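#struct-help
A.M.: can someone run this one for me? Single chain, 349 residues.
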Amino acid sequence: MLNYFDSSSEFILENGQSLPSLRLAYHTFGKLNEKKDNVVWVCHALTANSNPLEWWDVLVGENRIIDPKKHFIICVNILGSCYGSTNALSENPTTKEPFYHDFPFFTIRDIVSGIDLVRKELQKKLGFEKIWLCIGGSMGGQQAMEWAIREPNLMENLALIATNACHSAWGIAFNTSQRQAIENDPTWQNNDKNAGLGGMKVARSIALLSYRNYEAYNLTQTDIDQRTQNFSAESYQKYQGEKLAQRFDAFAYYNLSKAMDSHNVGRSRGGIENALSKIKAKTVVVSITNDVLFPSDDQKLLAKYIPNAGYFEIKSPYGHDGFLLEGEKLSNILLENILHQSLKVGFLS
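D.P.: on it. Structure tokens below:
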């Protein structure tokens, strides 16, 4: 069910700027059980929405490891995203026009502050005390980790998939190149909802190179007919840009990528090791071995410094996108290490 959290109070950002009000869209699925201890909170990544049954159906849905028949599932569309939450195309109360380029810079910590407001409202309304499982991959994992540090007594279990404690120089370079593509679109400076869309299509093409890898492209985009132009890989890159432009806007893409770059759990906390040591939840850290965007060293660091963490690797031909596609492998890790069952799951028909 789609819901909205609305606050008319000023929302103060980490850098001291503020938004005059805040709206966050969120979905809930399933019901609280009698003990109210079956809450699963899903944190979404860069261009997803608050309905994980749409974009993470290999993990979330009926007869999946996260099942609305068993769990009360919550997912919030994050600040700055364009699926119902306050973003650059929302009305600026001062001008009565969309914010456009005047939307303030925000960080992962600001995103988590918004999520936590929804949590507090739902706790008060529904009466649950803890989140049984908080799970996120990629940018969603960054949020889940930041939240677990900030609220160490809130979560029983934490699953961090293909993510990191501090966004790497490598990841920042990829995001910067994507933003440069948007900036070099001549329409980007316009105050218009379609500004920068051409640049965003190129940005998406750049991003795909980090989401997949050499093996994935050779597996899925190799041509066997000896053509000399109009290659499958070429059309794939173009198609993915067009596809994103039908559901996303360049303002959200630009601002969310900057928020992703801001991620550093050690900032003002005495460093990464000290920050991660504050996590109390039982933690499953999952790495995808050929992920070029979030390589395994990132996850090994998490498992090293989070006190009650286990480290697990998945071999996948899909690189970083494996966190969205490898449902059976991820489910088995969660099943054995959070649900404490040895039975393997078999699905993905």
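A.M.: thanks! The mean pLDDT is 95.
D.P.: also worth noting: Residues 316 and 322 are 6 Å apart (CA to CA).
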